[in-house]
C-alpha cells in the first residue's frame, strides 16, 4: 500500500513537472528578432500554419508540443486569410488569436497634391501591396459619380481625388483607393460648397476644383494660396484672361519639354488661359484640402497680377505698371542668370 502511494505521488509530481514544462514552452515567445509580415493563404489550416512556423524557425518548442496545444488547449483556431504583422515577444497563443481576429497589417500610400492623375496612377500600380486593376472599366464608376456636380461631361479623374494618406490591407485593389479618394473629395468639397461665401464666380462644385488645381500649381506656400485665389477671382470678375502658365503647360501635354516659350503662350489649346477667357475645361492637377479652402474663401484684394520672385514666393500687384516693374525686378534677373 505504501509503495502504491509513493508511486501515485511520483506520477503526480511527474505530471506536475510535465505540465509546468508544457506551460513554460507555451509562454515562451516565438523566435523573432524583429517584426515580420506573414501572409496566411485562404484555406490554410491551423496545423499547416504550425508546420510553417516550424519550418521558418519561429517555434520556441518542439512541433509536437505546439500541435498538442492546438488540439487540446487552444480555443478559437478559425484563423482568417490575410497579411499580418507579427511582433517579437508574442507567444504562439497570442499570434493565433491575432490570426483568428482578422486584424491584418495596415499599409499606407500617400497621394501628393500638385501631381497629375497619370502620376498618381503610376504610384498606385507600383505599390507592392496593392493589386493593380486600374482600367477604363474599373474607373468608370468613379467618373459617373461626378456627373451631378458639373454641368459638363467629366471624362478625366484629374483633380477629382483628394490628396491624402490612405491606409489599406495587402491585396486591396488600386481602384478601391481611387474610389475612396474620390469619396473623400466629394464629401469635403460638397460640405464646403454649402458654406461658401456669396459672389464667387463658380457655377458648380466642379469649377471650384478647376480653380483649386490652378492654385495648387501656382504656389506651394500656405499663406499665398488665398491671395492667389483672390487675384484669379478678380480677373474672372473683370472678364480678364487668367493668363496662368500651368494651364498652358497642362494643355501642351507631352509637347512640353520644360521650357515655356512665347509660342506656347499663343498655342490654341482648350487649357490655354492666355488665349481663352474664363476657367479651363477641367482641373490641371490633383488637389489637397488647402487649395479647395483657398478657392472657396479667396482673399479680398485689389490685386490683379502676381509674379514669381524665384524663391517660391510671389509679388502681388494691383496695376499693370506695378506688375511690369515687378517683372523687371524679379523675372528679368532670373532670366539673366
Q: Outline the biggest β-sheet.
A: 2 strands, antiparallel
Sheet with most strands: strand arrangement: 1-2
- Mind telling me the CATH class of the domain at 28-101? Alpha Beta
Global mean pLDDT = 89
State the oligomer: single chain
Give the H and E element order. Answer: HEHHEHEHEHEEHHHHHHEEH
How would you sum up the global shape? elongated
Structural class: mainly alpha
CATH topology of the domain at 28-101: Dna Ligase, domain 1
Q: Report the radius of gyration as a whole number of Å.
A: 31 Å
Q: How many β strands by DSSP?
A: 8
First-to-last CA distance = 108 Å
> Which bin fits the share of residues in helices?
40-55%
**Second CATH tier, the architecture of the domain at 28-101:** 2-Layer Sandwich
Q: Give the strand content.
A: 5-15%
Tally of contiguous helical segments = 13
List keywords for this structure.
337 residues; mainly alpha; Dna Ligase, domain 1; two-stranded antiparallel ribbon; two-stranded antiparallel sheet; 8 strands
Walk me through what this model shows:
With about 325 residues, the protein is mainly α. The chain has a domain of about 70 residues: Dna Ligase, domain 1 (2-Layer Sandwich). The protein has 13 helices and eight strands. It has a two-stranded antiparallel sheet with strand order 1-2. The chain has a two-stranded antiparallel sheet with strand order 3-5. β7 and β8 form a beta hairpin. α7 runs parallel beside α12. The longest helix has 25 residues. The chain is elongated and about 85 Å long. The termini are far apart. About 5% of the residues have low confidence.
Amino acid at each position: 500500500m505504501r509503495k502504491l502511494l509513493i508511486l501515485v505521488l511520483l506520477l503526480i509530481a511527474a505530471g506536475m513537472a510535465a505540465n509546468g514544462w508544457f506551460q513554460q514552452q507555451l509562454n515562451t515567445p516565438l523566435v523573432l528578432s524583429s517584426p515580420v509580415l506573414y501572409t496566411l493563404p485562404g484555406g490554410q489550416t491551423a496545423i499547416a500554419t504550425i508546420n510553417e512556423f516550424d519550418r521558418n524557425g519561429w517555434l520556441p518548442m518542439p512541433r509536437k508540443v505546439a500541435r498538442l496545444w492546438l488540439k487540446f488547449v487552444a480555443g478559437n483556431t478559425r484563423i482568417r486569410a490575410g497579411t499580418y504583422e507579427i511582433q517579437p515577444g508574442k507567444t504562439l497563443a497570442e499570434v493565433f488569436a491575432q490570426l483568428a481576429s482578422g486584424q491584418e497589417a495596415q499599409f499606407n500610400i500617400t497621394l501628393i497634391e500638385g501631381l497629375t492623375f497619370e502620376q498618381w496612377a503610376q504610384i498606385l500600380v507600383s505599390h507592392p501591396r496593392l493589386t493593380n486593376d486600374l482600367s477604363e472599366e474599373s474607373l468608370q464608376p468613379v467618373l459617373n459619380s461626378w456627373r451631378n456636380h458639373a454641368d459638363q461631361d467629366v471624362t478625366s479623374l484629374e483633380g477629382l481625388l483628394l490628396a491624402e494618406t490612405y491606409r489599406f490591407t495587402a491585396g486591396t485593389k488600386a481602384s478601391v483607393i481611387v474610389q475612396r479618394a474620390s469619396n473623400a473629395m466629394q464629401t469635403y468639397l460638397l460640405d464646403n460648397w454649402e458654406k461658401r461665401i456669396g459672389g464667387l464666380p463658380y457655377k458648380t462644385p466642379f469649377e471650384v476644383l478647376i480653380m483649386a488645381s490652378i492654385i495648387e500649381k501656382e504656389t506651394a506656400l500656405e499663406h499665398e494660396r488665398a491671395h492667389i485665389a483672390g487675384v484669379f477671382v478678380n480677373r474672372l470678375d473683370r472678364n480678364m484672361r487668367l493668363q496662368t502658365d500651368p494651364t498652358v503647360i497642362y494643355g501642351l501635354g507631352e509637347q512640353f519639354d520644360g521650357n515655356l516659350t512665347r509660342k506656347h503662350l499663343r498655342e490654341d489649346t482648350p487649357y490655354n488661359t492666355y488665349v481663352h477667357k474664363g476657367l479651363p475645361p477641367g482641373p490641371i492637377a490633383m488637389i489637397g484640402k488647402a487649395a479647395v479652402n483657398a478657392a472657396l474663401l479667396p482673399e479680398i484684394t485689389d490685386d490683379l497680377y502676381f509674379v514669381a520672385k524665384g524663391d517660391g514666393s510671389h509679388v502681388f500687384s494691383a496695376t499693370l505698371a506695378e506688375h511690369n516693374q515687378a517683372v523687371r525686378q524679379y523675372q528679368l534677373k532670373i532670366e539673366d542668370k
